[in-house]
Amino acid sequence: MTEPSSAAHRPTLEAVADRAGVSRATVSRVVNGGAGVRSSLAEKVLRAVDELGYVPNQAARSLVTRRHDAVAVVIAEPETRVFTDPFFAQQLRGISKELTAHDSQLVLLLVEGRGDYARVGRYLAGGHVDGALVFSVHLDDELPDIVRRSALPTVFGGRPDGGAPHTPYVDCDNRGGAREAVRHLRSLGRERIAHIAGPLDQTSAMDRLDGYRDVLPDAEPELIARGDFTPAGGERAMRELLDRCPDVDGVFAANDLTAAGALRVLGEAGRRVPEDVAVVGFDDMEPVAEQTSPPLTTVRQDIEEMGRLMARLLLRGLERGGALAGDPLDTAPSSVITPTALVRRASA
Amino acid sequence: MTEPSSAAHRPTLEAVADRAGVSRATVSRVVNGGAGVRSSLAEKVLRAVDELGYVPNQAARSLVTRRHDAVAVVIAEPETRVFTDPFFAQQLRGISKELTAHDSQLVLLLVEGRGDYARVGRYLAGGHVDGALVFSVHLDDELPDIVRRSALPTVFGGRPDGGAPHTPYVDCDNRGGAREAVRHLRSLGRERIAHIAGPLDQTSAMDRLDGYRDVLPDAEPELIARGDFTPAGGERAMRELLDRCPDVDGVFAANDLTAAGALRVLGEAGRRVPEDVAVVGFDDMEPVAEQTSPPLTTVRQDIEEMGRLMARLLLRGLERGGALAGDPLDTAPSSVITPTALVRRASA
Lengths: 348, 348
Prior knowledge:
The structure is a homodimer of 348-residue chains.
Chain A (H helix, E strand, L loop, with lengths): L12 H8 L3 H8 L7 H14 L5 H8 L4 E6 L3 H4 L3 H16 L3 E6 L6 H9 L5 E5 L7 H7 L4 E4 L11 E4 L1 H14 L5 E5 L5 H13 L8 E3 L4 H14 L5 E4 L2 H13 L9 E6 L4 H4 L5 E4 L2 H21 L4 H4 L4 E3 L2 E3 L5
Parallel strand pairs in A: 1-2, 1-3, 3-4, 4-5, 5-11, 6-7, 6-8, 8-9, 9-10
Antiparallel strand pairs in A: 10-12
Helix pairs in contact in A: 1-2, 1-3, 2-3, 6-14, 7-8, 9-10, 11-12
């Protein structure tokens, strides 16, 4: 192991000055932007920097500049979920592309569970990143409070509930998209349309349920089953629905993974899709929606683009914080709601 | 947006001292461990800390303590690959469990490509983490050099090639496992056994090819096709093999994803598995190996456990670096090679 003591072998500013034959002050000026240093001298220094593999003491430097060129991403889910739900991979892809384009390092802070949030808070407050992108927050999560205490510029993915009124967020039109899904089922002549809801401690799931109720205000409570955005949750909920309402002829599932689980149970129960039961999902998740049997009619949201927008909003805020602080109008927070669109495939 | 300027709203040490009715020096002593402070005073301070949501200026503090309670993970692959190859999710699961058990934050540094390594190097050298876990390194990667220059304690996942002779690593017995796979195919009476190799710029792929050659030193070169550890690479290689050696009756694929691709092509070509062609993979990857058709005989390595071992080795090194520095024997690096085992399913 390169032991901690080997930090002593890291090339120093003095070593660079020796090698370049210049003063320490000159090296320092070059390393910090080169203002006021003749270009011939600066070149000598940069050559010595390359030859020695010198890295400035960023910890000390970032205390002065207060810039780390890094952004933390915190997902309020255990790491196992982060790596099994493709939603997160797609959102991270958008974030990664946008941050990379601005040479900012994506720092993904993984947790096993809520017991780890205090540690995440210490890292966020510890002067390691310029800002934070936070998503998949639940109603009773302490995370928004912890993030706020870190005093870092923050953008949420998904509308946070009440707790963080002045923090900008990026979300899709969950309620409008849900309305479109249910209207589509009704336009196919379906009369017993059920909803498999997502986890109702998340605003995306609440909004999609509200959209269902907007179109079917008189739907009986037994037509609404609770899922959890996973295929297993969709299976459980579909079994309940078939049990309670055997005459169900339409299902709006809160996301595509839920719909995939529901389709499996319908198949096992001998119900033909869409002839007996038409099914609509939400997300248009790659590759899920195209690989279900039959392929899934669903409400598309551009998840990768939402990730890109989150990163862009944060980076813009960081720039303004530097250049335009003091102009309250121009630095005012603004959230972004992206549109949704129904994608018709075989399932409805 | 919580603008950068709002850092001014972060509760200060002074505010805590005011609220607790003690001196700043007392607050500072309590926050930094409480040595020499009466417990009644310490309690007052901690109550004020809680009430105000005070977070010490960790950036300044970590410059003094040189501890961040955080470990960076760098995977030498684009983030898209990190989120599509379950190998990485499983290794990260082991790392996450072990780091969490020691209250150390897992900091995953994602990249789009090699162009981002310089930025990763700046983050590693920037005083943000106590050590680094690095995996999936390729022969011509600059990453090991960049990591070494950061002077951080480091453990590699997978044996690094030459470039980092004194850095400990965790790997499985790639060559021995490969030998077992090929011997198994031979024990089934197979006489034309092909190998679909992994990317030969990685030691794991090289070692598995060497294991194949150990058992079949006289295998004709056309029996060896090159894959890249992905299903698509396995498909391409299997098509080449069927073209070049139509009498092939056994395939040792360098990993399970490669085998999954090969099985698809064999199915399309009308070859029965295992009757016409027996196939063995490497990894015993969940859920891949059990879901192929037919289920895959493969060489098991405990990927999650390897992640745990990497983290344990690093944390042990960090402790020793603190407590036992100066005792060269006790701090000497040591790598770990984990055993492999053949798991027999229907494909061979």
